[in-house]
Design goal:
The protein is α/β, with parallel strands linked by helices. It is built from 14 helices and 15 strands. The longest helix is centred in the first third of the chain and has 18 residues.
Length: 377
């Protein structure tokens, strides 16, 4: 595989409904689409960085800059036998995993298409999961009231989702969980704090233990492992780490220190599919279950997530939901849908297996740049 051309597009899409976390509320999604080409064949990826450096230090603008000025010169015109080599080829660039992942994941799509195989097959997905589809969970942001939260949960359960996650923050936590439990009983339920608490809040967080939650996701600082291990020792509820797991090494340290019992894998956070597979394999070897998180991706990123979620240690429903929850219309045809049994079909065509609607992409595009191999090799 030899990348001859990279195209970057900066898009802005309105969300169907506002989405609020402990970071704040958003009503639109800026994103960078990356297309890589070789000899007329193309692959596409999506950068999951947001406009603001709240979840991560990366933003859409930093990703654009790093891809155009640093990543592209390292990759254009270079021969790769497999896309798993790309992350290592970018070792000189410290950090910027989301920028790296966008190009790396597009390259996996290109590679799979060149082999006329689905991305799930190339990644090593489970044949049984590929046939049956992945289990889908849903993430519900902070609402205007607890009653509105209950209404949203009811709507999503009626749509078939197998697991509900609600966002929490101080003053929107125990009562929010209690509201959902009283209304819906023992549904599979988890909470996501997005690093909104401190270790000093351990006693308060312990008040969530009686509600039989699947997990509490990333309660403490975004880069912390040590205090999470101390907190986990005081909680019955399993801790799941998200932001802290930015590399395979961080995952290994978290497991060894007992900082979590579950890991959320996001390929954008760790640098792409290759590193995500390594985290998956490490967790499987240590008997730590994993699930696939979401970053409000369009259908492009969501399709990538579906394929990665077919790996065998993705044993918990992920945040891979239907397109219509976020974008109307989405950038792909057909859009991603959740079936009545709470599963999502795995696309079977080459690569990510979905068709990008170029007209919609063009209408949403604010900036575009083409980067080409000029070596003539």
């Amino acid at each position: 595989m030899r990348i001859e051309r990279i195209e970057l597009r900066l898009l802005r899409l309105p969300l169907v409904r506002f989405f609020e976390t402990s970071f704040g509320r958003i009503t639109e999604r800026p994103l960078v689409l990356v297309t890589v080409e070789e000899d007329g064949a193309s692959g596409i990826g999506e950068c999951v960085a947001d406009a603001n450096p709240y979840y991560s230090s990366e933003t859409t603008r930093t990703a654009w800059h790093v891809i155009a000025e640093f990543i592209a010169p390292l990759l254009l015109g270079r021969e790769f036998s497999h896309p798993r080599e790309i992350f290592g080829a970018l070792k000189a660039i410290r950090g910027h995993n989301m920028a790296k992942a966008a190009v790396e994941m597009a390259s996996w799509d290109l590679f799979a298409k060149q082999r006329n195989e689905s991305l799930s097959s190339v990644l090593g997905g489970s044949a049984a999961t590929i046939a049956a589809g992945i289990a889908s969970g849903v993430s519900i942001g902070i609402q205007h009231s607890f009653e509105e939260l209950a209404e949203r949960v009811g709507i999503e359960l009626a749509a078939g989702y197998r697991r509900v996650k609600i966002k929490i923050k101080p003053d929107w936590d125990v009562e929010a969980v209690e509201t959902v439990r009283k209304r819906f009983g023992s549904i599979p339920l988890m909470v996501d704090a997005n690093a909104a608490y401190r270790l000093d809040d351990a006693t308060h967080l312990g008040a969530l233990d009686p509600y039989d939650l699947m997990m509490i996701e990333q309660p403490l600082d975004y880069d912390d492992i040590r205090d999470h291990s101390r907190l986990q020792a005081r909680l019955r509820t399993p801790i799941c780490l998200d932001e802290s797991i930015h590399s395979v090494r961080a995952a290994e340290e978290a497991i060894e220190q007992g900082a979590c019992r579950i890991i959320n894998i996001k390929p954008g956070r760790v640098g792409g599919h290759g590193e995500a597979v390594r985290v998956h394999d490490l967790a499987a070897a240590r008997r730590i279950p994993v699930w696939h998180g979401g970053m409000l991706e369009t259908g492009v990123g969501r399709a990538h997530n579906i394929h990665l979620s077919t790996l065998p240690n993705f044993t918990l429903p992920g945040d891979v939901a239907a397109s219509r929850r976020y974008f109307a219309p989405d950038l792909i045809d057909p859009e991603i849908e959740v079936r009545a049994d709470g599963t999502i079909a795995v696309p079977t065509g080459p690569g990510i297996g979905v068709a990008v609607n170029l007209d919609r992409v063009v209408r949403a595009t604010e900036e575009r740049v083409e980067l080409r191999d000029t070596t003539g090799g």
